Amino acid sequence: MKITEVRVKLLTGYEGDEKLRGFCSITFDDEYVVRDIKIIEGARGLFVAMPSRRVTARCQKCGNKNHLRARFCNECGVGLSSRPHSRHERGSTRLFVDIAHPINQEMRHLVHDSIMEEFELEVTRSEQREDGHDKSPYPQQRHISPKHRDDDDRSMEAGI
Ligand SMILES: [Zn+2]
């Protein structure tokens, strides 16, 4: 399986989560796309987080799904006691599980390196846009090559 396209959307000073540096989508074999991959600034540098969801547990009283850390049920308000959780190897409670992810080291490296490469390119491009010819008061009239323009607009809407 080959990575045929990587797209990165940079975030700067994103509200509420300044550790989140960007979103990314990856296409495999020109046929399968994974979106909502996050590029996060961690204590030991940038890392890639695959799309994930919060782990939930059902309320004993009404059956509503609540986040694991919730102290009260969102639906009926009953107090939630601490329940047995699935745990990481390191013993911490697993609050998120990945929805799609590589299952071997080789693919993990390939995905990570491809995203980081595109991320660096995108950072360079955005810096060039800032100190280059983009003195227009209308930021939407940036110099985007016509053949990519529509795609870029669409991916902005899709939030990647
Ligand atoms: Zn409940």
Protein architecture, described:
The structure is a single chain. This protein has 160 residues and is an alpha+beta fold. The protein folds into 2 domains: 3-51 and 106-158, Arylsulfatase, C-terminal domain; 53-98, no CATH class. It is 25% helix and 28% strand. The chain has 2 helices and 8 strands, in the order E-E-E-E-E-E-E-E-H-H. It has a 4-stranded antiparallel beta sheet with strand order 1-2-3-4, with helices on one face. Strands 5-8 form a two-stranded antiparallel ribbon. Strand 2 (20-28) and strand 3 form a beta hairpin. The longest helix has 27 residues, at 105-131. The radius of gyration is 20 Å and the shape is elongated. It starts with a strand and ends with a helix. Mean pLDDT is 81; it is low at 147-155. It binds zinc ion (ZN).
Strand order of the largest sheet: 1-2-3-4
| Overall outline | elongated
- Gyration radius, in Å: 20 Å
Note the total helix count. 2
**Low confidence ranges:** 147-155
Taken together, the total number of domains comes to 2
Determine and state the CATH class of the largest domain. Answer: Alpha Beta
Corresponding CATH architecture of the largest domain: 2-Layer Sandwich
CATH names the topology of the largest domain as Arylsulfatase, C-terminal domain
H and E order: EEEEEEEEHH
Largest sheet: 4 strands, antiparallel
Mean pLDDT: 81
Hey, roughly how much beta strand do the residues contain? 25-35%
What small-molecule ligands were found? zinc ion
SS-based structural class? alpha+beta
